[in-house]
Each structure stands twice: as C-alpha cells, then as structure tokens.
Design a protein that fits this description.
By secondary structure, this protein is an alpha/beta fold. Helix content is 41%, strand content 14%. The chain has three domains: 198 residues, no CATH class; 256 residues, pyruvate-formate lyase- activating enzyme (Alpha-Beta Horseshoe), CATH 3.80.30; 85 residues, no CATH class. α12 links the parallel β14 and β15. It is globular and about 70 Å long. The protein binds cobalamin and iron/sulfur cluster.
C-alpha cells in the first residue's frame, strides 16, 4: 500500500531498540553488547580489549533519503522512546531490530499503539526476516530487505532516485586499554548492501535476496562521496560497511584510479572474502589504502564447502597482508555440523595458527531466514525452545548437535578466544607489529610513485603513534611471551623512529590511563552503555535541498537529557 501524505510533510520517527544493552533482563542478554570488538573479537583480552559503539546506520540512510520530517532515535531508553512517541505527533514509527531483539521491538510497537494509536508501525532490519513476525508484533508493515526504496515508494516518492550518503562517524567513544583514540573517528562508507555469494549461514546475503544492491555503483561515485564526507568530518579514514567490498573489482579499481587522479589518498577498513582479495591483488590493496580487512575463513576442515576460500593458502595470505601493513581480522565458525571435538580443535588451531591481528569465533547459528535455517527446519534440528534473545552465537547452539550439548559450545568459544590471546598476545600488540612490518616493507620498496609515497607517510604515522601504547600493553601482558614480544617490538620501533622524551612520556601516560580503566572496570563493571543520540532531519526545503540534520546526545547516565551538539561532541570523545 502507498499512503498519500499530500496534506503535509509526513512526520516519521525511526528508532533502534531500547537499552540497556548487554544485560540479562526480560528483553535481552548479557551477550548482546552494543560493542563489536569487545563482544565478538577481543572479548577475552580484558583491559586490552577494543571498546567502541556503532550507530544503527540503516536508520540514517532511511532518514537522509526521504522527503519528510524524520527523527532518528538511536540507543534510547524505553522511557525516552515513549516520550518521543507521545510528544512527537508522528504519522509513522519505524523500528529497526535484529532477531535477538524481537521482544524489544514487540514492546516498542505496543508503546506506539498505546501512546500514538494513529501512527503507522513499520518494522525493518534483519529481525523482519523472522517468520510470522507480523503475527507476533502488532504492526502495519514488515519491510524485508533494502529499506530506502520501500520507504520512498510508501511515501509516494521516487524509489529509484540516487541515494544520498549520510555523513556519520563509524564509531563513538573509541578506546583501547583505556586510552581514548583522540583522532577524529573514521567515517562510515556504505557502498551497498547484500552479497551474491549466498553462503548458507549468511544472514545478510539472504536478507537482501542473495543480491548486491549498490548505493554507490562506480569508483567515481565512491570517490566523490568519500570526498564529501571526509571534507565535512575532517578525516580521510573510512570504515567501509559492505559485506564484500573487493568483490566488485572494477569499482574498487575505479576508486583507486580516482584517488590517484585527484591525489587524495583515503584509507579504508573493509570486509572482503579471500577469493575477492586474491583477485584484486595485495599490492593493489596497499595502493587503495586498506589498513584492515575482515576475512571469513570459517573452517579449515570444510574449506571446500566455501567457494570463497577454495584453493587459497590462508596462512600465506594473512602473512602477506600483514607484511604489507594490512591488519587482518580472521573469523571462524564453531560447532558446525561436521565438527567433532577433535576436528573443532583442529579448526581453532587453524584460526589461531593464521596469526591474524584479530580473530572472531562464533557458533554456527541458523538465523532466520537463511538457507541453513530452512535446512535445519526441514530436518527438525532447530531449537524452537531457545528464546530468540539467545540466538547470538556465543553461548547456546540454536540447533541440535549430537557432539555439543549443554554448556559445551560456550566453553569452546571461551577456550578458543583464550587460546588465541595466550598464543598470539593482545590484538593491539599485533596491530602495532603489522604497522611496523608495513612501514619496513614499503620504505625498502625501490620505486615509489606519488601514491606509494602517500601510503608510506600514512604507515609511518600509524606505526609511530601506535607504538606509544606498548608500555600499557606490557603493563597488562597476558604472559611472559607477550612481555618479551613488547620488548622486541619496542626496540625495533626505536631503531626505526627513535624515541623522543615526549614520546617516552606519552608512553607512561598510556600506562596511567590503562590503570585508571582497569580500576573503573573493577569498581563499576565492564559494561558501557551507548548514549542516546537524537538526530532530527527536516524534509525538503523550498530550494529543494534536504537540510542538515542536528544531533543531540545526552550526558553520561542521563538518557533523557539533551545537550547542545558541541557539548555532546566533547562528551562523546571523552
Ligand atoms: C553494525 C552492526 C552491529 C552493531 C550494532 C549497531 C546498532 N546500533 O544496532 C554491533 C556491533 C553492536 C552489533 C551487535 C550485534 N549484532 Co550486528 N551487525 C552489524 C552489521 C555489521 C552492520 C549493520 C549495518 O549498519 N548495515 C548497513 C545498513 C545500511 O544496512 P541495514 O542495517 O541492513 O539497513 C537496511 C535494511 O535492513 C533496512 N532497514 C533497517 N532498519 C530498518 C527500519 C525500517 C523501519 C525500515 C523500513 C527498513 C530498515 O533498510 C536499510 C537500508 O537498506 C550487520 C551485518 C551487515 N553487514 O549488515 C550485523 C548484524 C545486523 N548483527 C547481527 C547480530 C547477530 C548481532 C549480535 C547479536 C551479535 C552477537 N553475537 O552478539 C549483536 C546484538 C547487539 C544488540 N544488543 O542488539 C546479525 C543479525 C542477524 C539477524 N538476522 O538478526 C547481522 C546481520 C550480522 C550477521 N550476519 O549475522 N551489530
Ligand atoms: S562471502 Fe561473506 S558476505 Fe558473502 S555470502 Fe559468504 S559469508 Fe556472506
């Protein structure tokens, strides 16, 4: 159904689910943190874990691409959401949620019905894939797949109009070892959604119909968007939220060509599959400015089951990437159907043995509605007794596996992360090493053109700044092996860059900050709740331009108070 809102510009509230996050309560679980690395990657590394929050990016894409008065409410409390619904006079309320947050979405829909009975309720995001969700949650529309074109069509606007990319930080409140990252946070770049590879377990590939929908279809469009965002935010670094960025080789090469032509050398953190990386070429990745790549290696014992990994020497690939200064996040899947305790240990050893900078271990989870979900459903393996809040892939198996019952899966995940930490040391140490390796290799490359000169300069800055954290890493070393590695890496860095008295002092400063952070976590616990962020967009003004959004972030612990954005920005980085 397309609604007519000719009488006035529609008023829309788009909200993420309410907090608190990462606590065991009626709606959520302690495992569902709003922190990517601390939740799923560096979680076993204690004080050395990476800490930051990501916004609900999809909401900003929707808001920026319709002609309507839109409020985006990110990380609200239940009370804050209810207040916005009661006071906002909204025609529509869109709720974005994932499967684990289904019960929160249901509660929010009930709040809307109670406080704004005339408003339409629209459900979107990955939770919309849950079978029968429209019967379970009182709503008017369930949007499965890409949301911008749906919302435009629903509002009677052109679904095919070019997509306007919002200007957003990729992360908030970033800190490692309690040391805040003072640089402006990398910006978000979303070239498109979905992936054509269709790996059976992959939620995103299936949610978007095993298709790739580009938001930015050419290298030139990517470059122009990156330039606009970078100029507005004052940083040339991007977190690229695209499932398999190098899969479209021509587009990535087009971006590289545009950067070289314009002499503007952006840097990127990307996700990509091993086959796409190999096809694109590692030296091209250096030129492109890839600082970090997330690769799904999944399982050595079933490499052939994933076409993306077939015939690739994973260990060599990781080694060659790190040698080029490209940090690698390698992810693997535990408790797959073929796994026995023995073959699973082989897979953990394989992942750890890749010696990547970061690893992710997740339990195989038949997320609705993937090919794997359908297959498990057909074979009666789905754990329908397990509440959806527990389908997060960290402690419980959502399907019946003969070899891993009870709390065995959780223990495997914990052991795997611990093994990686003890064998490979903290991820920050590994990333300092990668930066230094990249610098050494590039500085000894005989012929460097303008692009490689720029990359060398960036690599040097990264290595020089990051090595300042080595004293803090030493202070919290997991074992004597890590202490020894810190000492050797520190000497290597000093031989390359020297060490000024100021840098020595900064190193001591990182130790002080890390101890403060340790104290904070001991006294107040390890959880950090993201602050509520309210962003208001006014629809198309008379001149045809969509006016800039204004953001409000409440102060720490006072989720209902709004501050002027300058103050909010100051709090956000602290
Ligand atoms: C960033 C991210 C996070 C951030 C959270 C950000 C936030 N503020 O919510 C962090 C790192 C904290 C996180 C945590 C978790 N995440 Co997460 N996350 C992602 C990730 C990588 C990117 C999402 C994104 O921004 N995409 C880009 C935007 C543009 O796309 P989009 O969000 O899909 O939005 C589009 C459509 O979905 C739609 N849409 C979205 N919302 C709405 C709303 C309306 C009203 C409409 C009409 C349309 C619509 O329109 C948008 C434009 O087309 C995705 C994977 C992925 N590649 O998408 C996983 C993903 C969403 N996460 C997932 C999971 C499982 C989790 C965790 C449970 C992980 C864990 N094991 O602990 C936790 C849960 C945390 C919690 N308490 O909610 C799953 C969800 C599976 C599912 N089917 O539900 C995904 C798909 C990863 C995966 N492949 O398994 N996550
Ligand atoms: S390659 Fe990665 S993003 Fe693509 S379908 Fe497979 S797991 Fe999903």
């Amino acid at each position: 159904m397309t609604v007519s809102h000719a009488r006035k510009r529609p008023r829309i509230l788009l909200s993420g689910v309410f907090g608190p996050f990462g606590v065991d309560d009626a709606f959520g679980r302690k495992e569902n943190l709003m922190e990517l690395f601390h939740n799923q990657v560096t979680k076993a590394q204690g004080v050395a874990s990476f800490r930051f929050h990501h916004r609900s990016f999809g909401l900003y894409f929707l808001a920026d691409n319709v002609d309507a008065d839109v409020t985006v409410l990110d990380f609200p409390s239940r009370r804050r959401f209810a207040r916005e619904v009661r006071q906002g006079g909204y025609d529509m309320v869109g709720i974005s949620f994932i499967a684990t947050n289904r019960d929160k979405a249901r509660e929010m829909a009930a709040i809307v019905r109670r406080l704004a009975p005339a408003a339409e309720i629209i459900l979107g995001g990955h939770g919309a894939a849950i079978e029968g969700v429209e019967l379970d949650i009182d709503c008017d529309h369930v949007v499965r797949g890409e949301g911008i074109s749906w919302l435009r069509r629903h509002l009677g606007q052109d679904p095919e109009a070019p997509i306007r990319h919002p200007v957003l930080p990729s992360a908030e409140r970033a800190s490692i070892l309690g040391v805040p990252l003072l640089d402006t946070a990398a910006s978000l770049l979303v070239p498109g959604v979905g992936c054509v590879n269709g790996c059976s377990f992959c939620s995103t590939s299936h949610f978007f119909g095993r298709r790739y929908t580009p938001f930015l279809a050419t290298g030139e469009e990517l470059f122009e968007t990156a330039r606009r965002v970078a100029d507005r935010r004052g940083t040339d670094t991007f977190f690229v939220m695209d499932e398999n960025f190098l899969k479209d080789r021509e587009r990535a090469l087009g971006l590289l060509e545009a950067m070289e032509r314009h002499r503007r050398f952006f840097r990127f953190h990307i996700f990509s599959s091993a086959e796409a990386i190999t096809a694109f070429g590692l030296d091209n990745m250096v030129r492109l400015g890839v600082d970090l790549v997330w690769i799904g290696f999944e399982s050595q014992s079933r490499q052939s089951a994933f076409a993306k990994n077939a015939g690739i020497d994973a260990r060599q690939l990781v080694h060659d990437l790190r040698d080029r200064g490209i940090a690698v996040l390698a992810s693997g899947i535990l408790c797959m159907e073929h796994h026995t305790p023995d073959t699973m240990q082989d897979d953990v050893d394989f992942l750890v043995g890749l010696e990547p900078d970061l690893v992710q271990f997740m339990l195989l989870t038949p997320v609705p509605v993937t090919e794997l979900y359908r297959d498990h459903q057909r074979r009666g393996l789905l754990r329908t007794d397990l509440p959806l809040q527990d389908w997060h892939g960290q402690t419980h198996l959502a399907y019946r596996h003969p070899a891993f019952a009870g709390d065995e899966p959780a223990r495997w995940v914990a052991r795997a992360f611990r093994q990686d930490y003890e064998v490979n040391s903290s991820s920050m140490l590994r990333m300092v090493e990668t930066a230094i390796r990249g610098y050494e290799r590039l500085s000894s490359t005989a012929h460097r053109d303008e692009c490689l000169e720029a990359r060398l300069g960036q690599c040097e800055r990264r290595a020089r700044v990051w090595r300042l954290i080595l004293p803090a890493i030493a202070r919290h070393a997991v074992n004597p092996l890590e202490l020894e590695r810190v000492r050797r890496l520190g000497d290597r860095a000093e031989r390359l860059f020297g060490l000024t008295p100021w840098e020595r002092l900064a190193g001591s400063g990182t130790v002080a900050l890390s101890l403060l952070w340790q104290l904070r976590t001991r006294l107040l616990g390890d959880r950090i709740q993201p602050r509520t962020i309210v962003t208001r967009y006014r629809g198309r003004a008379g001149d045809g331009a969509i006016t800039q959004p204004s953001s409000r972030t409440p102060a720490r612990g006072t989720a209902d108070r709004e501050l002027p954005s300058a103050a909010a920005a100051a709090i956000r980085v602290g």
